[in-house]
Specification:
This protein has twelve helices and 40 strands. The chain is α+β, with helices and mostly antiparallel strands and about 675 residues long. The protein has an eight-stranded mixed beta sheet, sandwiched between helices. The longest helix is centred in the first third of the chain and has 19 residues. The protein is globular, with a radius of gyration of 25 Å.
C-alpha cells in the first residue's frame, strides 16, 4: 500500500537526560496546511479501503438491527414525579421524559427535535428538589463543552441560561429552587436564577474535576475532587452557613483512598470508602464530626467483592441497607440491617450480569430501582420491594431483538509476574481456532462488566470469539487492582493484556494470525502498547480515540487532569516510566506490524486527535509488512455520546476491518 508522504523532521527534545525524538511533531497542528493535506489524503486512503471491505454493509445492518433494542434508565424521583431517559429505535438520541402521578409520560428534552442534524447531545440533567425545575446541559459536535439551561417543567419553557463551559457539570440545588451549585471551568460556583453567570460566586477556586452532591432536603452539600489514587472530600451544613460562603469541613484529604459521602434521612453521614479497605466498606459518622477519626464501620469489606453502591430504605418496612457489590465483575446486592449492618439476605437479580446504580425515593420508601444488563440482555429497569423481598421488571428495553445463542466463560490466567487475571470469553458453541477480538481498558479504576453490546454480538454471531480482559488498572478487583495498573505500574496492564492473548492462543481459541487487539481511549493506549511491544501476537488492531504519545499527552485535551493516573513528563522518574510503554515512542522500523485502524474524532476535547495522526504516520513509515495502517477520522463527533446512526457505522467499520484481517466472514444478508 502506498501511503501519503509524511516528512520525518529532526525534532528531538532533551528531557531530564533523555533524548526523545518526535519526527511528526508537525502533525499536532490540525490547522496547518500540511496537516490538512496529509489528513485529507489519509481519509481518501481509508475510504477506498473501507469501500472494498467484504460485507461492510452487512456488518452495519446487523449492528443497526441489534441497536434497535434501545435503552431505558431507572426513574429519578422527585415527589410523585419521575424523570428518565428512553432511546427508541429510529431516534438518533435518547429523549428525557417526565411522568406525574397519573403515569402519563411527556418528553422534556429531545436532542433530535432541537437539532435534526443529530450533532446536539444531552450531556447531563438534574431536577430540583421538587421536580418543578430542571437543569440540563447540551453540547454540539462532540466537544462536550456543555451549555447549561434551566427549564420550568410544567410550562416547558427556559427560565435561565445558557451558561457556557459546563462540561458534564454536577448540579446541587438549594431547597428553595432559586439557586444551585455547579461546576464551571473546573471551579465550583453558586448560581442564582435570573442573574448573569458572570456574577456567580466562586466557592472552590482551584481548578479540579469536582463532584457535587446534596442531601434529600438540600441541607447538606458534599464536594469531592480527585487527588492521586483517591479523592478529597468536604461537607457543608447550609443551615449553618450562607450558600455564598458554605462552611466546608474536611471529610478526607490526602488519604490515598476514594470516599463517596451522603447524608441520609436519618441524619447520619454515610461513607462508601476504600480507606483501609481496598475493596471498600460502608461507614457512618456524625456530620458534625465528619473526619475519619469519627467513622464507624457499618458494613465491612469483602476481600473478593468490590462495594460499588448503597441505598437506604426506611419507609413502612423494616429499615434496611442495600449494598451493591461486584464479585469478579459480576453484580450482587446485599440486604443489611440499617442499624447494625448485619447481612439479612440478598436482592434477587435477573442473572449473572451488571446491576446499575440504585435509585430510591428521596422522601423514603421501601422500593429501589436499578438497571440490569448482561451479554445477551438489553438494558432494562427492575424494581426491588423490601416488603416482599421480590424483584420485578419495571421497564423493558423499548425494542425487541433476536440475540444469538452464545456461551460465556470466565478464565483465570497468570500474567507475566504470576498475578491471576480474569478474562471473559464469549463464543458460539464449537471448537477449534477462530478469529478473535481481545478487548481491554485497564484504567481509572473503571471495571469491565457484562453488558449488552451491538458491537460484540454480531462478531460472535458470525462465528468469532470476543474476549474481555479484566486487566490491572481497572476496578474489577478493587482499589489495589487500580493502583497496580497506574503510574509506575502501568506496564502491568499491558503485560496482563498480552498474557491474555497468549492464553487465548494456547487454549486453542484462536491463533496469532486470527487475533485482533481492540481498545478505546485508555483502552486504545492499551491496544497500541500491546502491538508495539508484542506485534507477533496480533493480526490486526483497532485503537479508537487513543492516547499514544505519553510524553506529550498532558499538553492537550483533558491530559492535565490525568497526571494522577499516568504521571507527568515534567517528573524525571515518571518520564522514564512513560517512555517505557508510550506506543508512539516504541515504534521501530523494520517490524511487520498488525493491520491497524486508528479512529479519531474532530470534536474530541478529551483525547487530542493528534495522537492518532502521529501514530499513523509512525507506523506507516516503520512497518515492513504489507498489512495496512489506516486512519479513520470523523468530524462532528467527539469522545462520548453520538448519534445512533454514526455509532452504528463506526462499529460496523471496525468489525469489517477486523474481520477482513483476521479471516472472519461477514454476517449473511438480512432477510
Amino acid at each position: 500500500m502506498i501511503y501519503p508522504p509524511a516528512e520525518r523532521q529532526p525534532v528531538t527534545d532533551l528531557l531530564h537526560g533523555h533524548a526523545v525524538p518526535d519526527p511528526y511533531r508537525w502533525l499536532e497542528d490540525p490547522a496547518s496546511p500540511r496537516t490538512r493535506s496529509w489528513s485529507a489524503a489519509q481519509e481518501d486512503l481509508w475510504r477506498a479501503h473501507a469501500a472494498a471491505l467484504p460485507g461492510r454493509d452487512r456488518w452495519h445492518a446487523r449492528v443497526a438491527g441489534l441497536c434497535s433494542a434501545g435503552t431505558v434508565t431507572p426513574p429519578l424521583w422527585r415527589g410523585e414525579r419521575r424523570f428518565f431517559l428512553r432511546h427508541e429505535a429510529g431516534r438518533e438520541h435518547p429523549v428525557l421524559y417526565t411522568a406525574g402521578p397519573d403515569g402519563a409520560e411527556e418528553p422534556l428534552v429531545d436532542p433530535g427535535a432541537l437539532d435534526p442534524s443529530g450533532l446536539t447531545v444531552l450531556d447531563r440533567w438534574q431536577p430540583d428538589l421538587t421536580g418543578r425545575l430542571l437543569a440540563y446541559q447540551l453540547s454540539r459536535g462532540g466537544d462536550e463543552r456543555s451549555e447549561l439551561r434551566v427549564m420550568d417543567v410544567g410550562a416547558r419553557r427556559t427560565v435561565d441560561g445558557p451558561i457556557d463551559r459546563c462540561r458534564y457539570a454536577p448540579v446541587a440545588w438549594l431547597p428553595d429552587g432559586k439557586a444551585f451549585f455547579y461546576v464551571r471551568d473546573r471551579r465550583v460556583c453558586l448560581h442564582r436564577l435570573g442573574t448573569p453567570a458572570a456574577d456567580d460566586v466562586v466557592i472552590c477556586a482551584e481548578e479540579r474535576s469536582y463532584g457535587l452532591g446534596s442531601s434529600h432536603d438540600g441541607r447538606w452539600l458534599t464536594v469531592s475532587a480527585p487527588a492521586g489514587a483517591g479523592n478529597d472530600v468536604w461537607l457543608a451544613d447550609l443551615a449553618a452557613s450562607p450558600p455564598e460562603r458554605p462552611g466546608l469541613r474536611v471529610v478526607q484529604e490526602g488519604a490515598g483512598a476514594v470516599t463517596v459521602p451522603a447524608v441520609g434521612r436519618d441524619g447520619r453521614l454515610y461513607l462508601l470508602t476504600t480507606l483501609d479497605a481496598p475493596t471498600g466498606r460502608l461507614c457512618v459518622a456524625d456530620p458534625a464530626d465528619p473526619g475519619p477519626g469519627g467513622w464507624r464501620e457499618l458494613v465491612g469489606p469483602d476481600p473478593e467483592a468490590v462495594i460499588s453502591d448503597f441505598a437506604v430504605l426506611d419507609g413502612p418496612c423494616r429499615p434496611v441497607l442495600l449494598v451493591g457489590r461486584t464479585r469478579h465483575a459480576i453484580s450482587e446486592i446485599g440486604v443489611h440491617d440499617a442499624a447494625t449492618g448485619e447481612r439479612l439476605g440478598g436482592v434477587p437479580l435477573p442473572g449473572l450480569g451488571t446491576a446499575g446504580r440504585m435509585s430510591a425515593r428521596p422522601e423514603g420508601g421501601c422500593e429501589v430501582w436499578f438497571s440490569y444488563t448482561d451479554g445477551v440482555t438489553p438494558g432494562s429497569v427492575h424494581r426491588y420491594d423490601a416488603r416482599t423481598g421480590r424483584t420485578s421488571l419495571w421497564a423493558a428495553a423499548p425494542g425487541a431483538v433476536d440475540v444469538p445463542e452464545l456461551e460465556s466463560r470466565q478464565i483465570v490466567y497468570a500474567s507475566a509476574d504470576g498475578t491471576p487475571v480474569r478474562m471473559v470469553v464469549l463464543a458460539r458453541p464449537g471448537t477449534g481456532p477462530r478469529p478473535a477480538i481481545l478487548y481491554g481498558y485497564g484504567g481509572f479504576g473503571i471495571p469491565l462488566t457484562p453488558s449488552y453490546s451491538a458491537y460484540i454480538l454480531p462478531w460472535v454471531e458470525a462465528g468469532g470469539v470476543f474476549a474481555l480482559a479484566q486487566v490491572r488498572g481497572g476496578g474489577e478487583e478493587g482499589a489495589a487492582w487500580h493502583r497496580d495498573g497506574m503510574l509506575e505500574r502501568k506496564q502491568n496492564s499491558i503485560d496482563d493484556f498480552t498474557a491474555a492473548a497468549e492464553r487465548l492462543i494456547a487454549d486453542g481459541w484462536t491463533t496469532a494470525g486470527m487475533l485482533a487487539a481492540c481498545g478505546e481511549s485508555n483502552g486504545g493506549l492499551l491496544a497500541g502498547a500491546a502491538i508495539t511491544q508484542r506485534p507477533e501476537l496480533f493480526a490486526a488492531a483497532v485503537c479508537s480515540a487513543p492516547l499514544l504519545d505519553m510524553v506529550r499527552y498532558e499538553l492537550s485535551g483533558l491530559g492535565p487532569s490525568w497526571r494522577g493516573e499516568y504521571g507527568s513528563a515534567e517528573d524525571p522518574e515518571q518520564l522514564g516510566h512513560l517512555l517505557g510503554y508510550s506506543p508512539y515512542h516504541r515504534v521501530r522500523e523494520g517490524v511487520d506490524y498488525p493491520a491497524t485502524l486508528l479512529a479519531s474524532f474532530g470534536g474530541d476535547s478529551r483525547v487530542d486527535p493528534m495522537h492518532a495522526r502521529k501514530m499513523c504516520a509512525a507506523l506507516q513509515h516503520a512497518t515492513s509488512g504489507d498489512r495496512p495502517v489506516l486512519l479513520r477520522h470523523e468530524e462532528g463527533v467527539g469522545h462520548g455520546a453520538r448519534a445512533a446512526g454514526r455509532a452504528a457505522w463506526l462499529a460496523a467499520d471496525m468489525l469489517a476491518f477486523l474481520a477482513a484481517h483476521t479471516g472472519l466472514e461477514a454476517p449473511p444478508p438480512e432477510r
